[in-house]
């Protein structure tokens, strides 16, 4: 397991999968160990995945100063990783909450980003959070599919989003495009993968300056892919489109019947679309699929 040392002396770990040109991968959660990403549906057959364990997660050390868990302060860890790998610039893929970290990195170091893929990334860094109604509206799409778990799961999900209930595994299916054995196994792996203290601090006051970030990303020359799941509530495709419109050179892709982990719902579709973007054969402007 390779490691490097952050500017404050914290030892950080990353995991390598596959062969080819490196693709730096930033996990979500927030502050979830990168193991949940797996091989991203087989994307490691096309690129060498560099899966970073953010400080205090997975195999990375806990920092001396918990304030360094704040999203904007993690940007320098990504930059030190780039330098450690000897890359002049790099392709970056970020999932979920990791998307805000990737946006802040691209805003601060635009010359270091070759291509940026934002996968089901709620754009908090742009001042565009997913709302409770967004998530409930996406959840109600499941009713039309007649899935048997819906009736028992929806009230608990609604209560959690309203702040009157606790997180309940019964509504895990809402985060997946299909609730099958693969999704159940993936959801079960979440235990022990989160650093709750770090997650609480990731979005703490001062983490984001949306006007400044939007202005910087409007000048970002690197191509950007914003990929949303058709059935995901955070972000819904409409919110993903609004995020894509912030960038100078972005394309929007909506993966059919996919939730928050699209590489599990249809690995072939996901890998084909992301690989086409990374290879430079994607659409050059914002467009839905």
Short précis:
By secondary structure, the protein is an alpha/beta fold. The chain has a single domain, classed as Rossmann fold (3-Layer(aba) Sandwich), CATH 3.40.50.
Number of strands: 8
Rg over alpha carbons: 18 Å
Helix and strand element order: EEEEHEHEHHHHHEHEHH
The whole-number mean of residue pLDDT values reads: 95
- Beta fraction of the residues? 15-25%
Number of helices: 10
Q: State the name of the first-level CATH class.
A: Alpha Beta
**Low-confidence residue ranges:** 284-289
Would you tell me which CATH topology applies?
Rossmann fold
- Strand order, main sheet: write it out: 1-2-4-3-5-6-7-8
Please state the overall shape, judged from the principal axes of the Cα atoms. Answer: globular
Helical residue percent? 25-40%
Q: What's the end-to-end separation, in Å?
A: 38 Å
Structural class: alpha/beta
The CATH architecture is: 3-Layer(aba) Sandwich
Oligomer: single chain
| Tally of domains | 1
> What's the CATH H-level homologous superfamily?
Alpha/Beta hydrolase fold, catalytic domain
Main sheet makeup: 8 strands, mixed
Question: If you had to describe this structure to a student in words, what would you say it looks like?
Answer:
This protein is α/β, with parallel strands linked by helices and 289 residues long. The chain has a single domain, classed as Alpha/Beta hydrolase fold, catalytic domain (Rossmann fold). It is built from 10 helices and 8 strands. It has helices at residues 75-85, 98-108, 132-140, 150-162, 181-188, 196-202, 210-217, 237-244, 262-265, 267-278, and strands at residues 3-5, 11-17, 22-26, 48-53, 90-95, 113-119, 224-229, 250-255. The chain has an 8-stranded mixed sheet with strand order 1-2-4-3-5-6-7-8, sandwiched between helices. The longest helix is centred in the middle third of the chain and has 13 residues, at 150-162. It is globular. The relative contact order is 0.16. Residues 284-289 have low confidence and may be disordered.
């Amino acid at each position: 397991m390779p490691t490097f040392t952050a500017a404050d002396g914290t030892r950080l770990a990353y995991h390598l999968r596959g062969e080819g040109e490196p693709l730096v991968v930033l996990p979500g959660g927030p502050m979830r160990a990168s193991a949940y990403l797996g091989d991203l549906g087989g994307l490691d057959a096309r690129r060498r995945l560099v899966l970073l364990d953010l400080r205090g997660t997975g195999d990375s050390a806990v920092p001396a100063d918990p304030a360094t868990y704040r999203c904007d302060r993690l940007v320098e860890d990504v930059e030190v990783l780039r330098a450690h790998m000897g890359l002049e610039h790099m392709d970056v893929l970020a999932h979920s909450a990791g998307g805000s970290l990737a946006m802040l990195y691209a805003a601060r170091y635009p010359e270091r980003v070759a291509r940026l893929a934002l996968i089901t990334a709620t754009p908090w860094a742009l001042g565009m959070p997913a709302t409770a109604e967004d998530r409930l509206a996406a959840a109600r799409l499941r009713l039309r599919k007649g899935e048997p778990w819906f009736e028992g799961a929806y009230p608990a999900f609604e209560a959690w989003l309203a702040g009157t209930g606790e997180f309940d595994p019964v509504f895990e299916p809402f985060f997946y495009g299909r609730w099958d054995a693969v999704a159940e196994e993936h959801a079960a792996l979440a235990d022990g993968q989160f650093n709750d203290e770090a997650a609480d601090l990731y979005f703490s006051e001062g983490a984001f300056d949306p006007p400044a970030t939007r202005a910087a990303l409007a000048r970002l020359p690197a191509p950007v892919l914003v990929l949303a799941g058709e059935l995901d509530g955070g972000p819904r495709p409409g919110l993903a489109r609004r995020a894509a419109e912030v960038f100078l050179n972005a394309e929007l892709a909506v993966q059919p019947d996919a939730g928050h982990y699209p590489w599990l719902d249809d690995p072939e579709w996901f890998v084909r679309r992301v690989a086409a973007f990374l290879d430079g054969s994607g659409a050059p402007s914002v467009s839905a699929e």
